[in-house]
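TEACHING EXERCISE
Course module: macromolecular assemblies
Task: Read the component lines below, then compare them to the predicted structure of the full complex.
Student: A.B.
Group: 4
Components provided:
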Amino acid sequence: MRVWPIFKKEMRLYFTSPIAYVVVAIFALIAGYFFYSIFAFFTLASMQSMMNPAMARELNVTDSVVRPLFSNISVILLLLIPLVTMRLFAEERRSGTIELLLTYPVRDGAVLAGKYLAALVLYALMLALTLLYPGIVVAFARLEWGPVATGYLGLLLMGGTFIAVGLFASALTENQIVASITTFGILLMLWIIGWSADYAGGAWGKVLQHLSILEHNDNFAKGVLDTKDVVYYLNFIALALFLTLRALEARRWKG
Amino acid sequence: MIEVERLTKSYGPLTAIRDVSFSVAPGEIVGFLGPNGAGKSTTMRILACFMPASSGTVRIAGYDVFRESLKVRKRIGYLPENVPLYVDLRVAPYLDFVAEVKGVGRAERRRRVAEAMERCLITDVQHRLIGRLSKGYRQRVGLAQAIIGDPEVLILDEPTLGLDPKQITEIRSLIKSLAGRHTVILSTHILPEVSMVCSGVVIINQGSIVAQGPIDTLVDQFFPTARLEVEIAGPPAAVHDGMRAIPGVVAVEGLGVTDGVGRFVVESARGRDVRGEIFALAAQQRWSLLELKRVGTTLEEVFIRIVAGEQAADEARP
Ligand SMILES: Nc1ncnc2c1ncn2[C@@H]1O[C@H](COP(=O)(O)OP(=O)(O)O)[C@@H](O)[C@H]1O
Ligand SMILES: [Mg+2]
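Instructor-supplied answer key:
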């Protein structure tokens, strides 16, 4: 499997176009703003709680800073990941370079893996920037590292799922905008399914809740590492990548 | 080296190529000639393992393009029509990527890339962005990515498309220099290109092969006669009949009369020179013979004859 050269090429392309820089910068900016407002609120609350010991018992950094921060970050991801993945296949198809790429002696699977890993690494870089915020918290308050670690694992898995969906959408079209809107649409659907789960109730509600992509993330941020959630994301990624391979194959037949 | 057998490809209801069969011997440069929309790119894409055929087989270096695609892809270099390249990459890193994808080891890669750039005369632009290069240079980068890794077979789809005359000449001599080291099949809709670059030709029209073989053989096959262009000042009808009566002349065609000078094309059996007889005839009749010259038959005329013949046959069909 010649994944490595494809991976390197994709990374190089990410950093020769402005898209990667803009996405990373905007992500860091918005995440920073969220952190600032959440943390400012927390500091205010803790100062007041010094006068009121009953309230202090309620306050802990994990629940009042880390959880809301991670949940806000997942919403930003919903908007930004489609921009990270839209180029991967759509642009190759528009410019025709896919014709060369798919006739080099590499399997379609290796091409897919290289592209997936490149997007994942870019995303991991984005996440790495946010490590700064727990770092700041530690300077002022005691932080439980357990929930932070699982929280990041959750974000990584969820982002990995978003990227797989994005790759799939990108393989369907030669228009980057269409790819990114399709990705966003699919992700949004999978997200709001969780809302209707509350109304549906019963077995059906359970199913909907299980499908909801954000639902599974909340456990991680709470510090709960449940194999059910991990398996959900991994299954989702495998399914989306499998469909992407199929889409590439179908493209070959159509020419 | 390349064996194509009864290849058919349909895009939905449209059959782009039908029952295409031909073969290319090792070391040959074969031109795949046809007008636009004839099915050249379709065939090339199947040969390059980009898409599967609807039916039929292709074997390259003994491997089936469909069932042993990876083995075939290791042995070919492909230049698609319109030369799709990553415009945001620089030339040398791009070629390094191609070499790596083709499985050239790290130790050898630098040397192979340098060699490919040298052969394609792009060493001086190796640090430039591909998107900033002129069309001619981009074409050469495309050729360089095809020859990297020294594949046995090169598949070049319209390698001179969109170039200016100077660039066309350069690319052609570059391709000619590839002969011997690689087996080349190149498609084109430009006739002179084939006679200039190729040893053999496969002519395709409306999805079917209409002729193939070494160029000289094709000319003989489609033009079994030698031709002369004659200008004689004399009564046209008499001149026509007089020349037609010469033994060995197969046909005389009048091209028109201007100021009493008639222009004719005289066709005679190949190997039979009737110039002497025409001169004698004119002298005897006291017509002034103003011009008498042999007309070479070019591939172009073969092509026109074949393609026009096909179309006439199509129109005749109910
Ligand atoms: N991807 C495609 N989908 C549908 N029809 C196509 C496709 N590619 C080519 N064709 C049609 O197939 C025929 C042959 O095209 P092509 O192989 O590109 O010819 P050439 O390269 O000789 O100009 C044309 O009529 C063209 O319109
Ligand atoms: Mg073509």
